[in-house]
Every structure is written in structure tokens, then in C-alpha cells.
Amino acid sequence: MLLSKSLRTAALAAALAIGAALPVYADEQFFPLQSYRVGPYAAGGTGFFGGFIDYLNLVNIRDGGVNGVKLTWEEGETQYEVERGVEVYERLKNHPGVAAWNPLSVGIAYAMIDRITKDKVPLITINHGRTDSTDGRVFPYVFPLLLNPYSETSGIVNYIATREGGTDKLKGKKIVVLYHGSPYGKETIPIYQLLADKYGFSLEQIEVPHPGNEQQSQWLSIRRAKADYVVLRGWGVMNPVALKTAQKVGFPVDHIIGNVWSNSEEDVIPAGDAAKGYVAITTQASGAEYPVLQEIIKTVYGAGKGNLDDKKRIGSVYHNLGIVNGILNVEAIRIAQQKFGKRTLSGDEVRWGFEHLQLDPARVEALGAKGLFHSINVTWDNHEGDGRVTFQQWDGVKWKVVSDWIAPDWASLRPTIEKSAAAYAAEHNIKIRTSDDTAVSE
Amino acid sequence: MFDYQFFIEVLVGGLLSGVMYSLVAIGFVLIYKTSGVLNFAQGAMLLFAALTFVSLVERGVPFWLGAGVTLVIMVALGVAVERVVLRPLVNQSPMALFMATLGLSYVIEGAAQLLWGTQVHGLDLGIKDIPFEVGGVLISQFDLFAAAIAGTLVTAFALFFRYTRTGLAFRAVADDQFAALAVGLRLSRVWAAVWTAAGVVALVAGLLWGARLGVQFSLSLVVLKALPVLVLGGFDSVAGAIVGGLLIGAIEKLAEVYVGPLLGGGIEAWAAYVVALAFLLLRPSGLFGQKLVERV
Amino acid sequence: MTTPIRSAAVRWFTPNRFGLAVLLITAYAVIPFAGSDYLLDAVLTPFLALALAALGLNLLTGYAGQVSLGSAAYLAVGAYAAYNFNLRLPGLPFLASLVAAGFVAAAVGIVFGLPSLRLRGFYLAVSTLAAQFFVQWALTKFGWFSNNNPSGVIDAPPLAVAGLSFSGAVGRYVFSLTVVVVATLLGTRLLRSQVGRNFMALRDHEVAAKVIGVPLLRTKLLAFGVSSFLIGVAGVLWAFAYLRTVEPAGFNLDRSFQILFMIIIGGLASIRGAFLGAAFIVVFPLLLSRFGAALLGNVFDSGVLEMSQRIVIGALIIGLLIAEPCGLIALVDRVADKIRRRVFPPQSRPIHN
């Protein structure tokens, strides 16, 4: 026993001595995290970055990293402010072995597009970000994984159609979109219009000024318009206030459909009873029953390395989004390693990995995430990866999935995306990539 | 065809929202009146009070005990602010005092989140918000309740200032600081009392707004709703805060519903300021404000 | 016995001017070569942009006595105006768009300065918030301003002046530095002119100023115009040289407060104060967060550190206001004076301006 221990120590010392002769570069892949744990959006930030870190920890503890390459990270607080995100970018970009950036903020992501393209490192904007960056021909390094805002719009309309019994039943229905008065809120205006024209429902889009703590007049207008459904495209405090005000004017809560930034526990808990029955879209189911979450609870939280202070939040919407984000990042690295070798990869190699990030339902199940998310199929020109969406209903305590995995109507959205991407390419003198240009640069 | 019923509904909704604005504005007025400080930390105090109360209740403290403990903490905070911030800054320019309250709001916000975390909380005051109908117009139960509370609070303050020695001193200081000092009033005690009162207002407003919005960081942003009320009503008039709040609430909602669609909506954020401004150009010290020549 | 010319030169070459020369030489000849990309891109360029904004606000608030809480709005106007000039008038040199953007900001500033003709103090301060909210609303509302970009966020084109490209961290820094130096010189000259004296008369006693024949209306609006011009130009630097992207949400009330903090902390009615205040507000939180992370990063997560920093910064602001109501510049002057006295014991008392 004692002997074996000292033998091991000797072996370790020898390994270290050899290691010292090799390049100083340890086999590590680094994730710079522009997290926000303070300020108005702290609840989302702690959940998402907590989930992300929890998954990275799981891979390190359980598997010893990705094929032996250890995952490391460093957090820089941004408070969701663009210039602080940029400061963190400038500070951490020269760290060796940067794998990808995951800011979870539209504003910060926009400020980084030029920078990461120049530095050749992928920028992951899961569930959000710039819609036209879906077009990998123009944005080689930007990945709005799983769901861009247009797909979200289409997914919501498709869901309403299933509730009504088919897209043909949408004709003559009245849908009101209540959107946050910001660039984010306004982004889908033309797409709702496009779908209204296509399916023949009547549409009204009403703005709620930031921060949205007063919505009396908007909801009175909704009641006057006799809306059948209200789509809530909210943000932060606007969501609970919308639900409360809906109750105040007597609008049925189960006919309010929340978008992807109105779908968390933090959006409904402050609304109390008024939120009971509210439905929202999601790309990842909530709950901790999935094997990957169970492993995180056992391995990571069991070792006292869990990132969430409040264990009740394990399996919450933002936490699970962080975990799914972790899975996608890690798998992209794994896929890239199969091609480039089991070592620290360059940002461009990781980009190649993301462009081949194809996880079918069987692979998702093998990763312990069956039911957590459906599948993803990223290619060099489709950086979103055809993520499916599902709908969940708040029962007062937790979210319950109430629909199948629904596919947005990607084909009819793609032309709008390509047009916008082409305009961007023209404005910035970007050469549109073809499939021959996807090799990793030296 | 003009829909009168709808108009009345918007108007009533606006007036009831306006009461909520008044509630926040009163906290500003109390402090401005006696010390000439535009206390921007009012929002942070509101957040701090609501967060403290909710966190106590969630840890199993009974409702009234929680309210009592929070009240004590708010009073302690008020006294501490007077000691540590205001007293050393006496005779400084109003601008410096304003900036000091901004600094103070950083401290309070930071401390509130450090103590109680950044989670969002629901706050249930036990009042159902099922609307009831009066002549085809929906009226919110919760808003009526809030209006009643605000009314009670204002009456209580009015009585306090009329019939107690501290209240008398308060009015003396508000009228003329130097004269009040000259007759031997202790300014520091009046200030401490006023900051305590502002703490009470913060607690009440924090609970009512917290029940509407949930208790979270954005709660501190409700001060922005109170500022046009102050401009309209006058920084130094409690009555102005109330009338101003009602007016701003009603105008804001009516503007959003009837003018908003012409401009594309979402005008609420600035409409209140524009109305207040237009009014000010006619009457530069607000509805009830004192006419003072002042420099910053 | 010195010749008159030489003594004039000696007189011209005061310690202040000597300090300025050293500073400029360092800024142009040392920092671009010695500074890291991080220092240039993430610290100095935003510092320069915000220092210019602080200078602009200081003209209005410090010198002319009019309080404004709408600075961020003028930053936004400048940024969006430059973007649109650049986009819609393709042949226009960038410097021309920069100046034109300043004028647009000045025009907007004058419109929102109109209430100053009737209002004073906090009434005026709060009414300038109308600019803050209206501008943000308008920029988000009307897609034209952001070239109908679906998300309303615009990216800045690369910086180039007269065929000279200012890409890269050093280029952006040198460009910002030059703009700020020129603007500061112009601002200083203006303050030494009759206009500047009118500003101060207005601030010190409005009625008296009127009596001695200062045209109040023109002076007030001019103060708003000049101030917003400088802030607008600062907005162009902020958007084009620093962030290289613009979104309306970045120009919120917090930014206005930040700029106000700079001039109060740095010192009202002082040009050096604006720079000192900007340095404090930009650099100090960064230092504090580096220091906190290095010292306690293993014990607490970034959220706890951030909140503690918030408390420290808030407390420090209060402390500074109490200890040094005239701003950091008064502190610096006092220390410099002390050193000077020790090094050159005074024969005659120095004259303060």
C-alpha cells in the first residue's frame, strides 16, 4: 500500500520530468466566460453559467476531460453590459487554447462578431443572437445554435396551429404579439407579419417600453382587440408584470405563449398565481430527471463542486440551457478532436467541430440527455442546426412539457435569412463561402 | 364611434397606477423638503426593504414580525445615512448631495444583493387580483387596495406633521433651515426623522410594488416613474406628489392608448416627461412647488 | 541678465505646460509602442471617449451651471448620426461625418436645452431626462436610423481618414487621442473667450449676468449646443473606435450618471478634472476587479466580488464627496503645490488662476 503510493509518486515525478521537456502547453481547452451574476439579469446569468460550468466540471471529473484534454475556464463579470463584455474579451482573448465564446447576450455577441472573425474563434449564441448568422456562408465563426429568433417565431405559430387543430384553422384568428421595446423585441416583427400573411390570421404587435413594469394600457388594448392568443416576447421584469396585468384585465393565462426569453422560473415565480397555466416555448425541457443531470448531482454536487448556491435551481430552465450549451460545446470539441487529434485545438479547429456538430436522438440519448433536448444538425452553411422546440406549461410549482418536439418551418424562413446575410456580406466586403472554403486555416 | 367605456377603463387604470407612482414620489418629497436633496437612493431603499422582507418571510419569519424587523432595519438605515452621509456633507451644493445619494444607491443595492442574493422572488400580500366590474368597467382589486394603503399613509404623515413636536420641527426646517437652527431646533434629529419616514415609505412602496412586479433588481427602476411626477407636482409638495401621480398615471395611459398607435407605440417612457415639461414651461416650479430661485 | 525673448519663453513654459508636454509626448510616442492591445483597446480608448464626453458635460454643468442628465442621449445621437452620414453619403470623408455628427448632436442638444430658459436646478435636471428617454425610444422605434437592421444593432465601418487606415488597437487609440486633443484645445480656447466668460457669469449669478448684458438665451442655448457637440463627437469615438457596434440600450441613464460622476469626482469647471474623473471612473473599477479577483477569486464567485466592488465604489464616491468636495483635481493641485514648495521654496507666492 505504502509502496504502491510511493511508486505512484515516483511515476508521477517521472511523468512531470518528461512533461517539462515537452512544450509548456498543457493539454487544456479554455472557455472564457462573460458571465453576469449581478444586475437586472443576474437570475438568468447565474443559472446559465452555473449549468455550463457544472457540465464542464462533470466532464473533467467523470472523464478526465475530453479525451484527456482538460477543460478550464475563467469568469469575467459583465452585468450584461456590452462594454464590460468587450473588456473581458480583450482581456481573455490571448489566453492559450480558447475554445469558444458563449456570452448569452445579444449586445455583447454583436460587438464580438468582427473581433472573433478576425481572431478565428467560434462565437456561440445558443437560442438567441443574430438571426442571419445562421447563414454560415457569410458568418463562418458565429453559431446561433438550436434556435434563432425567426425559428422561434415559426415554432410558436406552429404550436398555436396544433392547439387550434391545424394551420388552416389559424385563418381569422387574432394574435397579438407583446414585445419588449428594444432591438431584441423588435427583431421578429417582419416574421410575424410574414406568417400572418401566409396563414391568414390577423396580427397586432404592441410594444412595451423598457423595463416593462407598467402594462395597463397595453393589456387594455389587447382586451379591446379581443385577441385569441398573446405571444409574450418579453424580457426580465416585463414577463411577470405581463402575466399579472393579464389577470387584472381578465385575459386567460393559458392563451399567453411565452417566447424563449420569457420561459424561465424567474419569469413566472414573481407573478404568483397569475402565472398558473402559462405556456412557453423551450429548446430544452426543465427538470432534473435526465441521466446527465443525475450524474451532475451525484458527481459534481456530490463532490461539493456544484456552481449553484441554491440546489433547488438544479434542473431549472436556465440551468438546463447551460447544461445543453455545455454538451454542445464539448461535443463540438470531441468531433474536432477526431479529425485533428486529441490535443488542445485552435479556435478554427473548434469552428470545424461546430460545423460538423451532428447529434441525432440516439447520440443525445447516449449523452444522457434524452428528452432534455431533441437533436442538432449543424453544417457549414446552416449554423443553427435545425433544433426542435417544445412547449411547457407552468403549474404553479414547475414546468410541465405539454407538446411534442415541434419543427419550425425552416424552409420558408431561409430566404429572408440569406437576403439579410447577403446584405451584410455586401456591406462588409465579405466573400461568400462555398463548401470548398471550410477547411481549417493554418 | 368613440368607446366611452374603454376610455373610462383606461382612465381608471391610469389613475390607479398613478397612486403607485405617488407612493414612490412621496419618499422623494419628504427628503427634498427638509434637506434639499433629490434622494436617488429611494429606489435602492425600496428594493432593499422589499428584499429584506421577502427573504425573512421565506426563511419562515411570520408576516408581521418580518414587516416589523424590516421596519427597524429601514429606520437604522435612515439614521445611519443621516450620520454618515448627510451630516458631513452639510452645506455642500445640491449637485454634490445628489451624487452622494447615487453613490449611496450603489452601496445599498450591492449590500442588498450581497445579503439576500440575486434571485427573484414572488411576493404575495394575500390580496387576490381578480378584477370586478362596475358598470362594464373592470377595476383591479389590488390597485384599489394599494390606493387605500397610500391614502392611509399620507393621512398618517399629515397627522404626524401637524400634531407632533417632530412634525412641527419638520415643517420649521422645511420653511427655513437657518431660522430653524437659530431657534435651537436640532437639524440632525429632524433629518434622522425624515430619513426614517422615507424608510417607511420605501417599505410600503417596496411591498406594494414588489407584489406587482416580483421582488427583483428591477424594482429599483420604479423611481424613474416617480421623477416626472415630481417635476409636475413640485419637488417639495406632498399634495403635489399625489395630484401629480394621478395626473401622470392617467395621461401616460391615455397617451399610450390613443396617441401611441399614431407614433408606433411604446411612448409611455417619455410621454410623461414631455407632459410634465410642457406644464413646467407654464409654471416652472410645478403644480404646488414653492417658487424658489435656486442654483446648482 | 536674461534677454527679453528668453524670459518670455521661460514664462510661457510654466510647470503646467511642461506637464502637458510630457503627457502628450508620452501619449503619442511611448504608449502606442509600449502599451498592450488590452491597455489600448479596453482601457485607454474608452477612457478617451468618455473623457471627451465629460469635458462636454463639464462645459455645460461646470462652467455654465446648467445640469443635464441626458448626456447618454447625445452620445447616441452622435454615434447614430455618424453612422448614417457614413452610410448615406458614400463619398463623405470620415472626419466630415464626425464633425457633422457633432453638429447633429448639438442641434438635438439645443432643442432639449430649451427648457433651461425657464427651469433651474433639479427641475431642469429631471427635464433633461426627456431627452434620455425620447432619443432611446426614437432610435429603437425607427428602423431608418439603424438602416433597417432587423435587430437594430449596427456595426461600425472601419476607421479610415484620407486613405489612412486606423484599424488595429494602436490606430484606434491614436485616432481617438488626436480627436480628443483637438477638441480639448478648441474647448479651452472657447472658455478663454468672451463666450466662456459669459458661461461663467451665467453660472455665478444669472440675474447679475443679465444686468451686465450677457445675452442669457443665446448663452444658455450655446452652452447646450457646444456641450452636446463634444458629447456627440465622443459618441462617435465610443461607437466607432471603441465598441465598433452600436445599440441604443448602451446609451442608458446609467451612462449619463457615469459621465456626471466623472465631472463631479474629477472637479467641476476644470478641464483637467474631466480627464481625471474619467480616468477614475473607467480605470478604478477595472483595477478593483482585477485586484479583487486576484486576491479573493478562489474564495468567492464573480458575483460576490462584483457586488462588493459596487459597495466599495459607492462608498468611495461618498467619501470623496465628503473629503474633497471640489473634486480630485483640488487634491492633485494641493499635492503638487506641496511638492513644488518643498522642491522650490517660494520667494513670492504663486498666483492661482
TrEMBL record, chain A:
<comment type="similarity">
    <text>Belongs to the leucine-binding protein family.</text>
</comment>
<feature type="domain" description="Leucine-binding protein">
    <location>
        <begin position="37"/>
        <end position="395"/>
    </location>
</feature>
<dbReference type="Pfam" id="PF13458">
    <property type="entry name" value="Peripla_BP_6"/>
</dbReference>
<keyword id="KW-0732">Signal</keyword>
<dbReference type="InterPro" id="IPR028081">
    <property type="entry name" value="Leu-bd"/>
</dbReference>
<feature type="signal peptide">
    <location>
        <begin position="1"/>
        <end position="26"/>
    </location>
</feature>
<protein>
    <submittedName>
        <fullName>ABC transporter permease</fullName>
    </submittedName>
</protein>
<dbReference type="InterPro" id="IPR028082">
    <property type="entry name" value="Peripla_BP_I"/>
</dbReference>
Automatic annotation (TrEMBL), chain B:
<feature type="transmembrane region" description="Helical">
    <location>
        <begin position="63"/>
        <end position="85"/>
    </location>
</feature>
<dbReference type="InterPro" id="IPR001851">
    <property type="entry name" value="ABC_transp_permease"/>
</dbReference>
<dbReference type="InterPro" id="IPR052157">
    <property type="entry name" value="BCAA_transport_permease"/>
</dbReference>
<protein>
    <submittedName>
        <fullName>ABC transporter permease</fullName>
    </submittedName>
</protein>
<keyword id="KW-0813">Transport</keyword>
<feature type="transmembrane region" description="Helical">
    <location>
        <begin position="136"/>
        <end position="161"/>
    </location>
</feature>
<dbReference type="GO" id="GO:0022857">
    <property type="term" value="F:transmembrane transporter activity"/>
</dbReference>
<feature type="transmembrane region" description="Helical">
    <location>
        <begin position="37"/>
        <end position="57"/>
    </location>
</feature>
<comment type="similarity">
    <text>Belongs to the binding-protein-dependent transport system permease family. LivHM subfamily.</text>
</comment>
<dbReference type="Pfam" id="PF02653">
    <property type="entry name" value="BPD_transp_2"/>
</dbReference>
<feature type="transmembrane region" description="Helical">
    <location>
        <begin position="257"/>
        <end position="282"/>
    </location>
</feature>
<feature type="transmembrane region" description="Helical">
    <location>
        <begin position="97"/>
        <end position="116"/>
    </location>
</feature>
<feature type="transmembrane region" description="Helical">
    <location>
        <begin position="6"/>
        <end position="30"/>
    </location>
</feature>
<dbReference type="GO" id="GO:0005886">
    <property type="term" value="C:plasma membrane"/>
</dbReference>
<keyword id="KW-1003">Cell membrane</keyword>
From TrEMBL, chain C:
<dbReference type="GO" id="GO:0005886">
    <property type="term" value="C:plasma membrane"/>
</dbReference>
<feature type="transmembrane region" description="Helical">
    <location>
        <begin position="67"/>
        <end position="85"/>
    </location>
</feature>
<feature type="transmembrane region" description="Helical">
    <location>
        <begin position="278"/>
        <end position="299"/>
    </location>
</feature>
<protein>
    <submittedName>
        <fullName>ABC transporter permease</fullName>
    </submittedName>
</protein>
<keyword id="KW-1133">Transmembrane helix</keyword>
<feature type="transmembrane region" description="Helical">
    <location>
        <begin position="159"/>
        <end position="187"/>
    </location>
</feature>
<dbReference type="InterPro" id="IPR001851">
    <property type="entry name" value="ABC_transp_permease"/>
</dbReference>
<feature type="transmembrane region" description="Helical">
    <location>
        <begin position="39"/>
        <end position="60"/>
    </location>
</feature>
<dbReference type="InterPro" id="IPR043428">
    <property type="entry name" value="LivM-like"/>
</dbReference>
<feature type="transmembrane region" description="Helical">
    <location>
        <begin position="311"/>
        <end position="332"/>
    </location>
</feature>
<feature type="transmembrane region" description="Helical">
    <location>
        <begin position="255"/>
        <end position="271"/>
    </location>
</feature>
<dbReference type="GO" id="GO:0015658">
    <property type="term" value="F:branched-chain amino acid transmembrane transporter activity"/>
</dbReference>
<keyword id="KW-0812">Transmembrane</keyword>
<feature type="transmembrane region" description="Helical">
    <location>
        <begin position="121"/>
        <end position="139"/>
    </location>
</feature>
<keyword id="KW-1003">Cell membrane</keyword>
